[in-house]
Amino acid sequence: MQYRSSKQRKRILELLRSTDTHPTASWIYDQLKGEFPALSLGTVYRNLRILQEQGEITHLDFGSTFDRFDGRMEPHYHFVCERCGKVMDVMMPVLSDMETFSCPQVKGKVLRHRIEFFGICQDCLKQD
Amino acid sequence: MQYRSSKQRKRILELLRSTDTHPTASWIYDQLKGEFPALSLGTVYRNLRILQEQGEITHLDFGSTFDRFDGRMEPHYHFVCERCGKVMDVMMPVLSDMETFSCPQVKGKVLRHRIEFFGICQDCLKQD
DNA sequence: GTACGTGCAAATATTTTGCAGCAGT
DNA sequence: ACTGCTGCAAAATATTTGCACGTAC
Questions:
Q1: What is the model's pTM?
Q2: A77, B60 in Cβ contact below 8 A?
Q3: Which of A1, A9, B72, B102 has the smallest number of CB atoms closer than 10 Å to its CB?
């Protein structure tokens, strides 16, 4: 697909670049409604997807729209296959100094952390 | 709230403990439908929330039901305030050996990783 | 007996999509 | 002119909730 440019898309990207609040689609919509009175949420979502495809922005998710639950309470990390969506446990040693490490910048109280690795799992690699 | 026990909740927990596939609510529902023919998805969701409150399971999310977008493409990490839901950037040095580090276990190709810190942000701490 | 849990169905919440007209190249 | 982009509204997806009945304690 050959993308054209549009005022709406350009402004959505500018807005995302100008903030570090990790906005939701709805926040972006509210911000731009004054500038584009007829703007619709559908347009915001469509453009966010296109910007993602173009590698201009990212999206904080787990690669699926479903909530996923985890019955292991021991600290561990996750590997998510971007092709088949499978989520696997990574039982590598927990980086226990992580909390203090990030403290100076965050200035809040860090209680726990989480790491996800993204890539292609062994099964999917075999299918190439 | 004073929780009682129920067969459904007990089996949902057992099921989650017995797998490492990080199931969705719907998968759990399908698995238990044979055992509880009248089971409803509502019950599954309700119990998943209760189990979470009891600290028996966890939930892979970002603390909100909204998609969140990020306009910064330089590698960086995130801090999520569990009280107000704010997401902040953590510009600590990227752990570049991370990919190879996790490889032996995952056996797939790791392309990138992500780290989130969870806790209480400075603003919320002040309010105590 | 009290009040929490369940199934069912309806309601919410969020995101996606079909369509007709508008706009970028 | 061709085809992507937009607004609008309806549909799709995922999760939550109200209610009447059942069940654990």
A1: 0.85
A2: no
A3: A1
State which CATH number among 1.10.150.40, 3.30.720.120, 1.10.10.10, 3.40.50.300 fits the domain covering B7-70: 1.10.10.10
The pLDDT tens digits of the residues spanning A11-56 come to 999 999 999 889 999 999 999 999 999 999 999 999 999 999 999 9
CA nearest neighbour of B115 among B66, B87, B78, B86: B78
What percent of chain B shows pLDDT beyond 70? 91
Give me the CATH code for the B77-127 domain, please.
3.30.1490.190
| B55-69 tens-digit pLDDT | 999 988 877 778 889
- Could you tell me the distance in Å between the CA of residue A83 and the C1' of nucleotide C20? 36
Residues 49-68 of A with CB under 7 A from strand D: 50, 64-67
Domain residue ranges of chain B, discontinuous segments joined by +: 7-70, 77-127
A51 and A12 in contact (C-beta within 8 Å)?
Answer: yes
